[in-house]
Structures are given as structure tokens and as C-alpha cells.
Amino acid sequence: MPKLILIRGYSGSGKSTLAKAIGKKYKFVVLGHDSFIFDYHPFEVSGKEFKLANQNLFSCFKNYLNKSYNIILEGVFSSIDKRINNIDINKFVKLAEKHQYKIIKILLLIGKTESCKRTSKRGTPVPTSLFQKLKNSLDKTLYGDELIINTTKLKKQEILKLIERKYFKK
Q1: Which of 23, 73, 152, 164 could form a disulfide linkage to 28, CB 3.0–4.6 angstroms apart?
Q2: Each residue of 93-105: pLDDT tens digit?
């Protein structure tokens, strides 16, 4: 049975790093929401580009889904910014369920200080006010069957081992 891993969480929590590590080790296609927004639109992004990026992400997702690839979909996926989150994650999940995918949901949390440190280090600092809005938004949208990992003090390999024990037992 093919798998869809949905990784969401705070800025700087390690979503992209984790997605790439799982993708490489277990041969998953990695679709990063930020890539569709910022990497493919290296200019000022407006509501129109966000909508187009979300449509492209869904189209790409469907193409891999129709070929039964294992897929990782990663991004913040919160409702703090209506431009970004006119994306409906449930649309992705429902389509994957229709294709008989096993759905794995992971939420990565991180402390405010560590988030600011990590995002500043990579050149995209998250303002404190935005972090709080994001925290409030993600706290409201928890899924019942979601694996929640606080990455503040964990290294990539430790997080990967937690996920492997739960979802990739041999």
C-alpha cells in the first residue's frame, strides 16, 4: 500500500530537512509547499501566484498519486495567512484515501527562541508576532491521529528514528 506522509509545523521546526531525509532513505517523492510558492516564483509573490502555486502543487500531487508513488507533502499548512492557506490539506488527504494510500500525519513543534534562531540562520527570520499567530493556528487544527514531535532539542537523526520506529518497522 503506498503512503502519503503529511509533515506540517512551525517555521524552522525541520519539516523540509525531515522530508528530504525520509524521501532519500525510503524513496518518497517530496513535495514542499514552500518550493511551489517561493522557488518557482522568485519574484514578489501575490495572491494570484499563491493560488497558481497551490494549483500546481495539487496537480503534481495527483500525477504522482495516479502512479502510486510514495509521497511526502510538507509545509506550514496553517490558516494565519489567507493568501497561503487557500490550500485545503483535506483535499489532498481525501484523494489519497480514495487511491487507498496509508496516510501518516506528523506535526513538528519548536520553541519560539529556537525557531527564531534557525530561521535567522538560514536568512528567513520569523518575527515573534508571526510565531505566536502560527502557534495558535496550528494548535486549533490538530488531527486526532497525528504524531506530534517537539524538535526544539532533538537532532535530525533522533527525529528520524522516532518516525522509523512508528511507521517503518521491518
Answers
A1: 23
A2: 899 999 999 999 9
